[in-house]
Structures are given as structure tokens and as C-alpha cells.
Amino acid sequence: MKSSCRISTRTSGRARRVGFGNQGVLADNDPIEQEKAMKFNALLTNAVIFHNALDIAEIVRQLLEEGWEISPEDLAHISPYLTEHIKRFGEYSTHELGIQPEAYETKLDVDFTQLRDQDLRAEGFGTAA
To answer: Of 11, 15, 61, 7, whose CA–CA distance to 38 is shortest?
Structure first.
């Protein structure tokens, strides 16, 4: 229970950091408008997390190409839930909105099986009863 509360608190903190206007307070009493605002904020937060994950994967690929050795344990300490770099009131270009983005590479050349096996053993799933 405590874990889910902490996750919910972190998620709402990210949403407040990404959201605009009135510090997350819904000023409209219309439930439809409130739902729209909440859905937009959730969409925006998820887009930021997805973009961060793509940036992290690209950096990991560049480091691997340069000869760096990256272990699954190293990647386990990196989180895509970062918001400090967002310029909430910065200048954003909209002329790029119509440009089709390139397809992103989904494969990351890191062997996660060892990390996955450790997690399963730690939870008791790696041994027979």
C-alpha cells in the first residue's frame, strides 16, 4: 500500500511539473472540461517520459559505439521520469509539428537476462517448490 501511494505521489508531482497554469488547480467546474484538462496533462507527462526514454536509449547507443561497457545494473539506475530539464515557460517552436519523425530504434544492445534472473531469484520465482 505504501509503495503504491509513493508511486501515485511521484506521478502527480511529475504531472504538476509538466502541467501549465494555476499550479494544477482545475479552475473550471464543468466535469467535462476537468476531465479534458486531466487527460491532457497525463498525455503531456507520458510524452515527456517517452521522449526521455528515447534520449537515454540514444545516449546509451552512442556510448556503446564509442566502446564503453554498459551493464544492466548501470541502466537500472537511470530513470526516464526526469522533469528538471523542462522549460515550462520557454520558447517552443511549432513549425516542426508537421514534420514526420524518423522511426526510433527499439533494440538496445545490452543483455538484461542476468538482471532479470537476479530479480526472479530474489522474489523466489527462480527455484522450484
So the answer is: 15
One DSSP character per residue, 106-122 reads: -------HHHHHHHHHH
Cell readout for 84 is: 528538471
Q: How far apart are CA 10 and CA 81, in angstroms?
A: 9
Whole-number average pLDDT of the chain: 76
pLDDT in tens, 49-70: 998 999 999 999 999 999 999 8
| pLDDT (tens digit per residue) in 90-109 | 777 778 778 888 888 888 88
Q: Do 53 and 93 form a contact (C-beta atoms < 8 A)? A: no
* Residue 110 CB neighbours (<10 A): 16
Identity of the residue numbered 14: R
Copy the grid coordinates of residue 23.
499550479
